[in-house]
Structures are given as C-alpha cells and as structure tokens.
C-alpha cells in the first residue's frame, strides 16, 4: 500500500495508538506481492489503508468564534474495516427495536467442527448458508415439538468466523425467544426461565442436519474440492469424514438466558457488526511482528505476514448476509405473525398483572412494549451517543459555532491514492 496521509489523531481518551490500518499501510503491499490474493481481500486492504485519509476526501469544520479548524476525512464504509462499524451498528440496533418482543431470551452458539473448517474455507458461501439453515431448523423444530414447547419461536443468528487469535473458527451466535406463539396463534406459550432445550439434543439434531446437507451438496457437485479440501475429492474420503462426524458428539453451547430486551440490545451492540479484530486489542508492531490481546491479559505475537493472512481469512463472500432472522423474527412475519405474538405476550402479561393484584402482589407488566416506530437519528447524534463527542462544539473554545467547508482540493490531491489492485 502506498503511504497515506492519515487523519489527525484526536486527543480523546481511548483512541487506539495502533490500528489495523497502520499494519496494512506498512506491510500490505509486500503481502500482496508475495501471495495470490483474490479481488475481495485486495479491496479490503485497499479500503482499510485509505479509510479516513485525504485519499477519500473530506471536509473541514471551522469555528466561527475562535477560528479553530478540525479536518475530517471520509470513511471507507467497508464492513471489514474496524473503524467503520460503530455507526452502522447503532443504526441497525435502532431499526431492530421495532421487532424485539417483550419476553426473555436465550443465547445459543453453534460451532462448525474443526474437521470441516478446511472444506468451509474454500466453500464459504455454501457452508455458511448451510450453517445458518441447519441451526435455525434445529431450533425451530425443537420449538414446535409438543414435548418441548409446541410453539413457533423467534431466532436471530449472527455469523462469526474467528477465534480470539484470528484463526478460522466459524460459529453462529443465536438469540432465541424464551417462548413462542402457539401453533394455532391463539396464545403465547412461556418457556422455562433457566432452560431452553437440552444441549445434547440440540447438538445431535444440528449435527445430523448439517452432515446430511453437506452430503447432498457433495452428491450434487456443489462443493469446491480444491486447495485445502482436495483430499475430499475422493468419495470414500468424504464418506469416511462424515461417518466419523456422525459418531462424534456435537457440542452446542447454551449461555445463561437474557433477562429481557434491554440485555438483548446490549448483546447485539457487542456482536452484530464486530470484525475479527478491533483496533483496541492491538498492542504493538515492531520487527518481531504484531502483538495483540487475545483473552484477558494474554497476548499473541504474529509476523506481519501471518497477521494479514489470518485477518483476510475473515473476509466474507460478496454481499453475504451475516445476520439472519428466522421463525417469528423472519422479515416475512414482521407485520403479521410477529405482531400477533406481541399482542399475545402483552395480553398474558396483563392477565398476570390482574391475578397479582387480586392476590395483593402488585404484579405489573414484565417488559414495556417497544416504540411503535423508530426515529431516524442522524450520524452526528449517533456519534455523540456512542462516544460522547459533540461535533457541533468547538474542541478549543467549546462554542457551538462550527461551520463546515469542503476540504481544499490541494489537500486531497497531495496524498497518493492506493493502487487499484482489484
């Protein structure tokens, strides 16, 4: 990557001293020369290197009171860029408030076994789609089972492909309603508070569904069996792999339930738009390599080449949807079945409130209904809510006197654009 003129670092507390962009600018060009990298990862490196630099243009805010100037450069808006997720995340969460149901929720994690990672790496679109489909089918099937809940539940699933050390580790984080709408739609059936479904049952059903789906994809010739998956081109080898996985216990992790919608929003804020590595986890970059925090106080140091290789493992296929909704949460039910479920929940809560009053317990609704519409918030207000930074105030004199002007063209032109290697 050609050197860029980075945006001036703010003195605000918490700004990382080292960013993924710094590593890309220092080592990205050498990495691209040494490795055959496809168009999508090349685009990611190019965008990250140019993000918030003069290359992308920008504007300057000038205080009409004291004359202080604050240049701001445009973001790349690439979904793999660590600096470009906060505002998208905040907007998404605001829009999701309309669909959240006033009930308790569970957090379930489905993980792709290590034996299937090589296959997934060269078949990301296919395997990730199957991961979503089979996890959702598992949860919805158990929800409709009369021996379990006998109801239609709601699921929101988020794909992550990384471990804390940036290794390839695909898994789904699922938010699951703690109850469901009865199959005839007449009432809301509340599930147990501390228990969703047996994890052994979840694992066995999920594993069977995923392996069956992979076998069908293999038989239909839908899998790329090159690169790390070349050994599976032999049908006997593929069959042996699946047979071994059928015999293996599949572990599904069920985390403690959320208390209500507020905790769901807090969770979504941490997981929905996360990338493989945030800038705040980076510790140093020197001749030994790149050091970053893994878990707690533990760190790992990788060569710059290995760091970039691992980072690019998590570039998703073009237009791949990594957040999906199923059951009651599916888009097709947003104005129909989902609203019926909301009505049934509130009616059940009202009935419990009346019963509580009759017994002198003063019971009230467990959760207030969400707003019936979502107010669109501009990005300046979102930034203020996320960081406490009010862009309307001058950072020098504190007056609300900032006037925006286009960034002078000579500033933009003075920084070389990154090479178009896509």
Automatic annotation (TrEMBL):
Top-level taxon of the source organism: Bacteria
Pfam annotation, one family: Zn_Tnp_IS91
Residue ranges of domain Transposase zinc-binding in the record: 23-112
InterPro entries reported for this sequence: transpos_IS91, Transposase_32, Zn_Tnp
GO terms, molecular function: DNA binding; transposase activity
Domain Transposase IS801/IS1294 residues, every copy: 154-332
An individual GO BP term: DNA transposition
This protein's name: Uncharacterized protein
């Amino acid at each position: 990557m050609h050197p860029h003129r980075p945006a001036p670092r703010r003195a605000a507390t918490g700004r990382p001293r080292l960013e993924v962009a710094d590593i890309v600018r220092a080592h990205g060009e050498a990495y691209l020369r040494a490795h055959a990298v496809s168009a999508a990862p090349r685009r990611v490196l190019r965008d990250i290197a140019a993000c918030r630099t003069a290359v992308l243009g920008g504007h300057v805010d000038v205080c009409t009171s004291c004359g202080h100037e604050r240049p701001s450069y445009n973001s790349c808006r690439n979904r793999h860029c660590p600096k470009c997720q906060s505002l998208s995340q905040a907007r998404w969460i605001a829009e999701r408030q309309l669909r959240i149901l006033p009930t308790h929720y569970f957090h379930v994690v489905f993980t792709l076994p290590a034996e299937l990672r090589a296959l997934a790496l060269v078949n990301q679109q296919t395997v990730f789609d199957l991961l979503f489909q089979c996890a959702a089918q598992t949860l919805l099937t158990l929800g409709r089972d009369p021996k379990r809940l006998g109801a239609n539940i709601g699921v929101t699933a988020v794909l992550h492909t990384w471990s804390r050390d940036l290794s390839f580790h695909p898994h789904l984080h699922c938010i699951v309603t703690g109850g469901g709408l009865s199959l005839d739609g007449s009432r809301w059936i509340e599930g147990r508070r501390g228990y969703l479904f047996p994890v052994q049952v979840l694992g066995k059903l999920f594993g069977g569904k995923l392996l069956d789906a992979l076998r069908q994809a293999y038989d239909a010739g839908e899998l790329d069996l090159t690169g790390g998956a070349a050994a599976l081109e032999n049908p006997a080898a593929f069959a042996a792999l699946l047979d071994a996985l059928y015999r293996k216990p599949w572990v599904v992790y069920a985390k403690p339930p959320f208390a209500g919608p507020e905790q769901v929003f807090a969770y979504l804020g941490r997981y929905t738009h996360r990338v493989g590595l945030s800038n705040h986890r980076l510790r140093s970059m020197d001749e030994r390599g790149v050091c970053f925090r893994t878990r707690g106080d533990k760190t790992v140091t990788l060569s710059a080449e290995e760091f970039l290789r691992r980072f690019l493992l998590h570039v998703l296929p073009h237009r791949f949807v990594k957040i999906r909704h199923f059951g009651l949460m599916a888009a097709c039910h947003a104005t129909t079945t989902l609203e019926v479920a909301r009505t049934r929940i509130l009616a059940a809560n009202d009935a419990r409130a009346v019963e509580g009053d009759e017994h002198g317990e003063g019971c009230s609704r467990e959760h207030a209904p969400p707003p019936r519409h979502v107010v669109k918030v501009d990005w300046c207000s979102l930034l203020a809510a996320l960081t406490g930074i009010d862009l309307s105030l001058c950072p020098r004199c504190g007056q609300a006197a900032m006037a925006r002007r286009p960034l002078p063209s000579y500033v933009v032109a003075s920084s070389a654009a990154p090479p178009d290697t896509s």
